[in-house]
Write a structure and sequence with these properties.
Two copies of one chain form a homodimer. By secondary structure, chain A is an alpha/beta fold. Chain A folds into three domains: 5-137 and 307-334, NAD(P)-binding Rossmann-like Domain (Rossmann fold), CATH 3.40.50.720; 148-301, Dihydrodipicolinate Reductase, domain 2; 346-437, Alpha-Beta Plaits, CATH 3.30.70. Helices cover 34% and strands 25% of the residues of chain A. The first copy, chain A, has helices at residues 14-25, 27-34, 65-69, 88-97, 107-123, 140-147, 162-174, 178-187, 196-199, 202-216, 235-243, 305-320, 362-372, 412-424; strands spanning 5-10, 38-44, 60-61, 76-79, 101-104, 128-129, 153-159, 226-227, 246-257, 260-271, 283-290, 293-301, 347-357, 377-382, 400-407, 410-411, 428-437. In chain A, helix 5 packs parallel to helix 10 (202-216), helix 7 crosses helix 8 and helix 13 (362-372) runs antiparallel to helix 14 (412-424). Chains A and B meet through helix 2, helix 6, strand 12 and helix 12 of A and helix 2, helix 6, strand 12 and helix 12 of B. Strand 12 (293-301) of chain A pairs antiparallel with strand 12 (293-301) of chain B, so a sheet runs across the interface.
């Protein structure tokens, strides 16, 4: 039998520990599948003294991950340190430059430097695999890179952040406010002490940048992505969505338009009966549309030690079998610059919730401003405050009443202009809520 | 640039024609992704004179597919002839023996001879790829073979036959009988003139045999599968399922039990809110459970020219890039004999619909027979015929009334014995309907 593949593991958090466990437990299966074993020969982590769920003494310890990366005894570096900067970046660069394959779960690193790292891997003819970086347990990277090579993608979208989906699910099911739900998610360990990166959509954007590159052959650039998080979503929005036949999800969407590739992350209304609307809790999902093909959807665990480690082991197994693909499915030199479709040109349906001053002429003013931008309404619902109901002459109280509108397909630009005009007219209070609708 | 990969295409039905089209249209993308082109150099089909959607003159014609398989000008044979016998079998064997890779969509051939063909491919060190053979547009073969190598599967199940799922969807949504729905499906081309192979579950069984082999490393054997089709399903069953919170799907299920691998195809009640219950029409879906992992579900088009051809092109792209995996994820010699778990040992919940004679003692008799087999009921619903409703003494008419029961987990053996006893007691008319429940 061939020599086992020798792995240096940098990072010993939940994922790193699960990799150690899976490789140990799956020994026979790996040999059966790859014709050779996969063995961790050296480890690196921040703290050597920390208690671990396995016997540290079985492995050689290399304090510096960069030294581990160039260690002559390893064939592959598994990088689960995280972060776009050093030491993760230097460790990965060092390994590739030394002709060693790299398996990483580091989305931040790939989003920031994926292009250069892919070119470096190519130059040294080694694999750079990163299945674990997006939607942990779902083999979406392999599917895009190898599984659907015959397809011409037109759109890819998904639920890529488990924290946000968990929160939206809990808000809807348990009728919690965003704030209450966030406290809960933090207590359960589903949200970080500083949740900004997750709830404001940045995590989703990094993952979307990687998927869009794989699907459309474009250079990775998270800065080309329009990003909006879920912190402004209220229970009132979820209720209105439900009544109208929708559910709200934080989606990352990349779509081919005539103007170029549109990449955006924002709370989105999806039809309740769609596959993606059924995805609840911390689960992730990705849907791909391609020319002439019905949509393909992958649903599964987005995070967690075993799910992520299982993706890393699959990446290692490919390397053990001598498989080396271009990291982003094509040579780095053939990845094209993004022709970015500006968000103002986005076209689709919109949900708009306004707090309108309840006095004569308000409805007419709003209607006129929308009409001036050629926006047609599919539905409009105005709710009077409980106190004003049955009043002799409704609409004289001057109180604010919610007005909920669903538009037919229109443009982002038109919606922004119409709402700016409505606000200037002083017929609404507060900031209008706008949620884009994504049809399947 | 490297020489293009030279393909011989055997079979020019919908799928074959779509392969010609996709390879032509996707030329640039393929070169970008594989570093070389993929070119069809010769064709074979039953009738040369038939009208085709492309110019036949652009390709060399080889009347005999077996001659095409050994043609020195080709590197790969694409077999889309179909059928477990010759000429498909001989063509594939000939190509492999001549050291040529094979890409096939032929589930019948793989189910019957997959084991031997895999060994032959291995011996000659060539690829045998068959992504298109199961769930056309869904990359499930690659996912099982390469994408989830870190996972230890415990169960795999899915909707693998578009015809059946289309029919069950139409029956439920349009309130059609099985027969009316079948006529409709035939008129639309979704069902064959002889629908037996699809509606009686054989097609699903062949696909399940392939998936079970990939997931559990067992030898392919469709004869180890318990098979029941959907022809006995009535609208009454679908309505009762819906009331109880379920939907009926024809599933192929392979599950690891203590007694061995249980493989079965039958109409199944799945919880309405499960991902698989949302899969409507001709769409296919596969769910995988693995140790320590949340379920992973893939949903997409199960058939159709473009979907199937796109899977074939992905298989060809792997070959063009020099990737060769063991056909079933591990060397043929390491595929283990199936330890078949007998269907009588199957454990789970059951839906039972009886037509009970409406007279005193019937309910007691049924209850006693179930109790004798230690079967506990989660729910029981008895519906009186409209005529008997409000009668002074219900239960004296002697007419048949439907009784619908949902059991807690019990065994197939217990259910069969209890129902045989109930029938011997002559308290029911007709054959009891039994539908197994699959929890997610």
């Amino acid at each position: 039998m061939a020599e086992p593949l020798k792995v240096g593991l940098a990072g010993l958090g939940t994922v790193g520990a699960a990799v150690v466990h899976l490789l140990d437990q799956g020994r026979d299966k790996i040999v059966a599948r790859c014709g050779r074993g996969i063995e961790i020969v050296a480890l690196s982590a921040r703290s050597r003294g920390k208690k671990r769920p396995f016997d540290l003494k079985k492995f050689r310890w290399v304090a510096d991950p960069v030294a581990l990366a160039r260690d002559p005894s390893i064939d592959v570096l598994v990088e689960v340190i995280g972060g776009a900067g050093d030491p993760a970046k230097r460790a990965v660069e060092t390994a590739l430059s030394a002709g060693k394959a790299v398996v990483t779960a580091n989305k931040a690193l790939l989003a920031a430097h994926g292009q250069k790292l892919a070119a470096l891997a190519e130059r040294h003819r080694v694999a750079l695999n990163f299945e674990a970086s997006v939607a942990g347990g779902i083999p979406i990277v392999k599917t895009l890179r190898e599984g659907l090579n015959g397809a011409s993608f037109t759109r890819i979208y998904g639920i890529l952040n488990g924290t946000c989906n968990y929160m939206l699910t809990r808000m809807e099911q348990d009728r919690l406010s965003f704030e209450a739900c966030l406290r809960d998610a933090q207590a359960l360990g589903y949200a970080e002490a500083d949740p900004t990166f997750d709830v404001e959509g940045q995590d989703t954007a990094q993952k979307l940048a990687i998927l869009a590159s794989l699907a459309f052959g474009i250079k990775i650039d998270p800065r080309a992505i329009y990003v909006e998080g879920i912190s402004s979503i209220t229970l009132a929005d979820l209720d209105a969505a439900s009544e109208l036949g929708y559910r709200v999800k934080l989606l990352g969407v990349a779509v081919k338009t005539e103007a170029g590739i549109e990449q955006r992350v924002h709370p989105t209304m999806v039809p309740k009966e769609s596959a993606i609307a059924q995805v609840m809790g911390v689960t992730n999902a990705v849907t791909m549309d391609a020319e002439g093909l019905a949509p393909i959807t992958l649903v599964g665990p987005g995070a967690g030690g075993v799910a992520t480690a299982s993706a890393i082991v699959a990446d290692l197994a490919d390397i053990a079998r001598g498989v080396r693909n271009a990291p982003f499915g094509r040579p780095a030199a053939r990845m094209t610059a993004i022709r970015k479709a500006p968000m103002q040109h986005h076209e689709g349906g919109y949900y708009i919730r306004l707090l309108a001053r309840d006095r004569p002429g308000t409805a007419a003013t709003i209607a006129r401003r929308l009409a001036q931008q050629n926006i047609s309404l599919e539905s409009i619902v105005q709710r009077h405050a409980p106190g004003s109901r049955g009043a002799a002459r409704p609409g004289r109280s001057g109180e604010a009443v919610p007005v909920i509108m669903i538009t037919y397909a229109t443009s982002e630009d038109a919606v922004r202009k119409a709402l700016a005009a409505v606000r200037r007219d002083r017929v609404v209070t507060g900031r209008p809520q706008v949620i884009r609708i994504e049809k399947n």
